[in-house]
Write a structure and sequence with these properties.
The complex is a heterodimer of chains A (141) and B (148). The longest helix of chain A has 11 residues. Chain A is 23% helix and 33% strand. Chain B has a five-stranded antiparallel sheet with strand order 1-3-4-5-2. Helix content of chain B is 20%, strand content 33%. Chain B has 148 residues and is an alpha+beta fold. Chain B is built from three helices and five strands, in the order E-H-H-H-E-E-E-E. Chain B has a domain of 102 residues: Thiol Ester Dehydrase, Chain A. The chains are: A alpha+beta (141), B alpha+beta (148). At the A-B interface, helix 1, helix 3, helix 4 and strand 2 of A face helix 1, helix 3 and strand 2 of B.
């Protein structure tokens, strides 16, 4: 499969969905990689003490992993020109082997010049967890 | 407590230089599951026209988050950081971050507002190379939840 080009893309195109599995180990790994050691992302005692149901994933981990729906499509993370979202619901990560399952879908909602806008949907436990996640990529002609 | 609106537009000294390391790019890509060879294989990145490994799009948070803390912790702002959650995030890239980049981030207070008793701060981060080439602009919305 070759990467998409402007000529091959149309508004309404659906991207291949991405499944993300997030375990406690993944939270520790992201904490180390990003430098975000906020305790609510790895310590159940503190997370529940501040009113959360359990340890929650870093919003930036969900946002980062969700970007793969676009980067796996274009095969080039360097072609992302903008990416934004709101963090609307926490992703609760239980202390078990499976962790949390997140489903990411995306579809092309706009093409302007060489810029292609992808509106995403990021779902955990039956509800969206990111608000208006939108990624814009630059494609070749 | 409402945030001090007089601080909108205030900018802070540039962050210390952040050198983007190859292993950090690989580590970050692995942590978010990014499988593109452009983020792990130098030859693949060069073959695609990049000088070195390409950082995933949310990598800029590493650089902007630290700089933004200057704004969030400005004592004149009045933000209760113990009640802060990350509300929104955006990245606008002028060009991708690549391994070997030496980056600085200048943080500023973009907006303050109050909604439903929550204090809401938007910080802006302007990331450029040490030689002044603009790379990425970030906006982070921090929500300090109303005390119970």
């Amino acid at each position: 499969m070759t990467p998409p080009t402007l000529a091959s893309v149309s508004v309404g195109d659906e991207l291949a969905p991405v499944h993300i599995q997030v375990t406690r180990a993944d939270l520790i790994r992201y904490a180390g990689a990003s430098g975000d050691f906020n305790v609510i992302h790895w310590n159940e005692r503190v997370a529940t003490a501040v009113g959360l149901p359990n340890v929650i994933a870093h919003g930036m981990l969900t946002m980062g992993a969700a970007s793969r729906v676009a980067t796996e499509w274009i095969r080039d993370p360097g072609r992302v020109v903008s990416y934004s979202c709101r963090f609307t619901r926490p992703v609760v990560v239980p202390d078990d082997e499976a962790g949390a399952s997140i489903e990411v879908t995306g579809s092309v909602t706009g093409i302007e010049g060489d810029l292609v806008t992808v509106a995403m949907k990021v779902v955990f436990d039956g509800s969206t967890v990111l608000g208006k996640p939108t990624i814009v990529v630059r494609l070749s002609a | 407590m409402a945030l001090n609106p007089d601080l909108v537009g205030r900018s802070y000294p540039p962050s210390p230089v952040y050198q983007v390391g190859r292993e950090k790019v690989r580590e970050f890509a692995r942590a978010i599951g990014e499988s593109s060879p452009l983020s792990s294989d130098v030859d693949a990145a060069r073959a695609a026209g990049y000088p070195d490994l390409v950082a995933p799009p949310t990598f800029a948070i590493i650089v902007s988050f630290e700089a933004g803390r200057q704004a969030a912790f400005d004592p004149e702002l009045g933000l209760d950081y113990t009640r802060v959650v990350h509300g929104e995030q955006s990245f606008e890239y002028i060009r991708p971050i690549v391994a070997g980049d030496e980056l600085v981030c200048t943080a500023s207070i973009h907006a303050v507002r109050e909604a439903a008793g929550n204090d809401i701060l938007t910080t802006r981060g302007d990331i450029s190379t040490v030689s002044g080439e603009p790379v990425c602009t970030t906006y982070s919305v921090l929500v300090s939840r109303r005390a119970e």
